What does this fold into?
Amino acid sequence: MKEIIAGLNKNFENRVRLGIMSALMVNDVLDFNALKDLLGVTDGNLASHLKALETNELINVSKKFVGRKPNTTYSVTEYGKLSFKKHLAALEQLLGNT
It folds into this structure.
């Protein structure tokens, strides 16, 4: 059981971070507003969780202007994909053992 628990990634324990990663795993790229609408969170809440994922190199952030408006998009890094898959595998193993 300890080995299974050790396989869980602390970066994905929060429901918002889990939601961000889940959404980005099935979409190549999502922008800030799409993530905000999808997860039903505030700007500040989403921004803080995105920053944590970016700091841990789990997601990429791309900023550009569309016309005169700023547009920030997010995608999962290869390291993020691997980490998230390992986390999900540990969860599945944990659920299989209960």
User: Anything to note?
Assistant: Residues 78-96 form the longest helix (19 residues). The first strand starts at residue 30 and ends at 31.
